């Protein structure tokens, strides 16, 4: 079997069990899975080729084995990582289903204590050939940014924080985990089997159970964040998606709904993109905006996001925060 076919075969085997990280809302957040990366890396090293991690994010979901045509939204690249984001109509969900998912996730998370996690099974997603199991996390809130930085430093990571904020904004909290976490392939299979059985027994289309909270550290997939707000509770979030260093180049492919718009922006001399997703599953008013860019570090690559779902936050304010990270 050729290396290309071998990689494709292993990717199809494991991608069907991958799930997505936090930003289900189509901020075009990275979807990444360490288990699949390790498997693909072994095949890559055996064949002497670069590993391709073809991960597809749709508004909220990873498509597995679905053929589709799409239009390029933007590409970000460094010496080690290339991220290609495309738009596709198939990535969108009906507004009624989006709202049902939003409400379900809010309800489940409200029943979790800080630091706890749960897995949720949504049968309508499986019917659409989408991953039906989601890992939700109630992140521990660090109200003192010094304590947050201490925790991040202990994990072996140094992150930049904003030095400029829009008028009236102040630090609210820091988080070490995103609200939507990762599930490795074996765990996904176990949770899916358990939750589908629970759905059959209870005759419900949406069920959930508590789950183990993912570990934190520089050697694992890790997405800490900082949240700022004003007196009107308009929020700006700075999220850091950390990609561990690897020996080979990573090609990451993502797809969002066809209503998402994007434009290139300058972030302190670095290429970035400003995107607007009009069908965000986590934004109360259905819209999320995001400035994203990448930076190569000694320990790997950081994918930065400065984002909001507050309608009163402007593009210029997001860019000002992004350019001030030091």
**Shape, per Cα inertia axes:** globular
Mean pLDDT: 77
Task: Please report the distance between the alpha carbons of the first and last residues.
Answer: 48 Å
Q: Give the proportion of residues in helices.
A: 25-40%
Strand order of the largest sheet: 7-9-10-15-14-13-12
Tell me the Rg in angstroms: 19 Å
Written description of the protein model:
The chain is of the alpha+beta class and 326 residues long. Helices cover 26% and strands 30% of the residues. It is built from 7 helices and 15 strands. The strands form 4 sheets. It has a 7-stranded antiparallel sheet. Strands 3-4-11 form a 3-stranded mixed sheet, with no helix packed on it. Strands 6-5-8 form a 3-stranded antiparallel sheet, with helices on both faces. The protein starts with a helix and ends with a helix.
What's the topology here?
Blueprint: H1 3-15, H2 34-47, E1 57-58, E2 61-62, E3 71-77, E4 81-88, H3 95-110, E5 117-122, H4 123-127, E6 133-137, H5 145-154, E7 170-175, H6 185-202, E8 206-211, E9 225-229, E10 235-244, E11 250-257, E12 261-267, E13 270-277, E14 288-297, E15 300-308, H7 315-323
Parallel strand pairs: 4-11
Antiparallel strand pairs: 1-2, 3-4, 5-6, 5-8, 7-9, 9-10, 10-15, 12-13, 13-14, 14-15
